[in-house]
Amino acid sequence: MTTTGSGSTYDPPADPARGAAASARAAARGHGPPPRTDRRVALVTGASSGIGAATARRFAAGGWHLLLSGRDRGRLEETASGTSAVLLPADLAAPEGARLLAEAALRKAGRIDVLVAGAGIGWAGPFLTMPHTDIDRVLFLDLNATLHLVREVLPAMVETGRGRVVLVGSVAGCVGVREEAVYSAAKAGLAAFAEALRQELRGTGVGVTLVVPGPVETGFFVRRGRPYHRSRPRPTSPGRVAAAVWDAVAEARDDTYIPAWLTLPARVRALTPRLYRRLLNHFG
């Protein structure tokens, strides 16, 4: 997902969509050209902790220039420790949050080669008791905000013909998890969006990767209000997910599951839905 190189000039394209992209990028840059960098640039959201923080550290170790976003500046500083990362604290739930973050990122770095959209929240409990405000909050942060952010950064990277969008999904979006109905719905929507967008971007040089982890050892479960209690699948480490993201970007993969066997439940569900539901009712 790169924009044009720093300091480059060009004639406005005749195509209206490209013209809009150029105008948006020019507005994001402000009055002067962004600083030049020879390193590839990654914008990572949700970088305050968990998968986002681990992914940021993995890309920093690989020599990338990082733009880190999250709501907690103090924790962003911890993630960025020892690196030259640029901190862009942002609340993607706020009005215009996605647009303001995209503009700030382009203004700071001049381009975005990879967007890792890792920001999100959870909620656990019976759907019948879920407050309407929490339904809206989960859907907006886990789905809507991601779509808006992708929409903001996509035109510039399509214009330059290269880059990658990495969407952090969940196995819950593939199979549906009881008492995580809205979270499952949001992640399923993200998976469908990834597939549809991938088809739209064919031939543009811009790729879309859907990362599908099972449970991960982070503060996610505490923040959602219920610890992880299932015996399987066992939680994996944020570092393992970060390594999978790194490999997926390097190898231009469309999908990556962590662990890899998590592809099986989705296949069983697609091929034999009755058997799948019997197994789900038995094992939970």
Explain what this protein looks like in three dimensions.
The protein has about 280 residues and is α/β, with parallel strands linked by helices. It has helices at about 15-30, 50-60, 75-80, 95-110, 130-160, 170-175, 180-200, 220-225, 240-250, 265-270, 275-284, and strands spanning about 40-45, 65-70, 85, 115, 165-170, 205-215, 255-260. It has a seven-stranded parallel beta sheet with strand order 3-2-1-4-5-6-7, with helices on both faces. The longest helix is centred in the middle third of the chain and has 29 residues, at about 130-160. The radius of gyration is 19 Å and the shape is globular. Residues about 1-35 have low confidence and may be disordered.
Extended strand count = 7
Low-confidence stretches at least 5 residues in length (pLDDT < 50)? Answer: 1-34
Strand content: 5-15%
How do the strands of the widest beta sheet line up side by side? 3-2-1-4-5-6-7
What structural category do the secondary elements indicate? alpha/beta
Number of helices: 11
Shape label: globular
Distance between termini? 39 Å
| Portion of residues within helices | 40-55%
Sheet having the most strands: 7 strands, parallel
Mean pLDDT: 83
Radius of gyration: 19 Å
Q: Please trace the helix and strand order, writing H or E for each element.
A: HEHEHEHEHEHHEHHEHH
